[in-house]
Amino acid sequence: xxxxxxxxxxxxxxxxxxxxxxxxxxxxxxxxxxxxxxxxxxxxxxxxxxxxxxxxxxxxxxxxxxxxxxxxxxxxxxxxxxxxxxxxxxxxxxxxxxxxxxxxxxxxxxxxxxxxxxxxxxxxxxxxxxxxxxxxxxxxxxxxxxxxxxxxxxxxxxxxxxxxxxxxxxxxxxxxxxxxxxxxxxxxxxxxxxxxxxxxxxxxxxxxxxxxxxxxxxxxxxxxxxxxxxxxxxxxxxxxxxxxxxxxxxxxxxxxxxxxxxxxxxxxxxxxxxxxxxxxxxxxxxxxxxxxxxxxxxxxxxxxxxxxxxxxxxxxxxxxxxxxxxxxxxxxxxxxxxxxxxxxxxxxxxxxxxxxxxxxxxxxxxxxxxxxxxxxxxxxxxxxxxxxxxxxxxxxxxxxxxxxxxxxxxxxxxxxxxxxxxxxxxxxxxxxxxxxxxxxxxxxxxxxxxxxxxxxxxxxxxxxxxxxxxxxxxxxxxxxxxxxxxxxxxxxxxxxxxxxxxxxx
Length: 505
What we know:
Blueprint: H1 2-8, H2 15-32, H3 39-50, H4 55-80, H5 89-100, H6 104-138, H7 142-153, H8 156-159, H9 164-178, E1 181-182, E2 189-190, H10 204-220, H11 240-245, H12 247-262, H13 268-282, H14 296-319, H15 325-336, H16 345-348, H17 350-371, H18 375-383, H19 386-405, H20 408-426, H21 432-454, H22 459-468, H23 470-484, H24 488-504
Antiparallel strand pairs: 1-2
């Protein structure tokens, strides 16, 4: 125990390591805030610079960038409605309306504190429950991942405003877009119309920036005459009473983030969307209606995506399986340094596990410090006259999209989806379900096909397994409840039951 504590405190006792973690966290926040510059990209670039470093110093810098980058996407999501990273998509749903109401400071303060609390809860789970959660995640068969993805798609009902039908259409559209390109099983092109350029599909970030950034800029053209709202950034740190009031939601969202993170291949974007959907269904009296600046709509996704960091590291360190794209890159970095993440990691190199836990803890401390700094400068972006701000948003969108693959084709797609998103918004469709469909589409399709292969393409056998396996049965019942819970029939039945109970009293 004493030895583990020494390993944990190693990064706290070296000024060089403290400086590297601080620099990485600071850089990660601002890299994450720029659309197109992903955390995965930043960590990948760092490997080429740090492969000759001491492994501890390299991990300090990467850990800082990792924590800072996941949080950083919330800045541009709140201020410009352009999520800097996929994990910040759900934050934009209520964060941007808060900025439009003049409460950008409050939104960023809530996002920062929620992220830090979620991050610490994820680290605690990593340190105390890694073996247990890893064993649980191994119980998930392909059919269970398919069911999990279907359940996530069904969250579109809570992300689609008042019309469930429009939400279903938007979610199905996202799934369709995710299927464009080469079939991962057969190698055949799908929906490419003979175009070689479409064989690799359409990059998700290009679609996301177009749907959220450019479409919003086009919508805002209708409101050029409206003067910008002066942002209130005098009070950034949320009150203790506000945090205490939402503490149950923070805890539940953190647990969702940890659980999703512990499932290999599921990352902060899925965790944030699921936490947001959970908040919409469980909070009966939000501070404002969801989608119009509800504090709960910022707290839930930001808690979940940072708690997911600890969850993502559980399969990475104990099984050698990446929890998301960033941890996949970090696994590569560990192999470069001669380490082998997996079941024997804590036996052969226990110091690495506890050193990494300490590094993430220190990065979260710096995240709280740097996250509450520079907010006034960032908030000035919202106060810029729209005639000047909208061209800047489009330029940032173009630069960020081009930076993905240095490809003008991605820019054309981004602009095309910006126009398409503008048309959808004019007819009352939400962009959240489209993005959710794109994220969960590959997970749903690949695991369904694997599950069918396990049953030799026997549909009856597949459905029999859904009832026979306890975990699959729980997920199936959850899907049925999710579907029924979003129908008017269910609402009427609940109303009748409630009315009969009141009459009985």
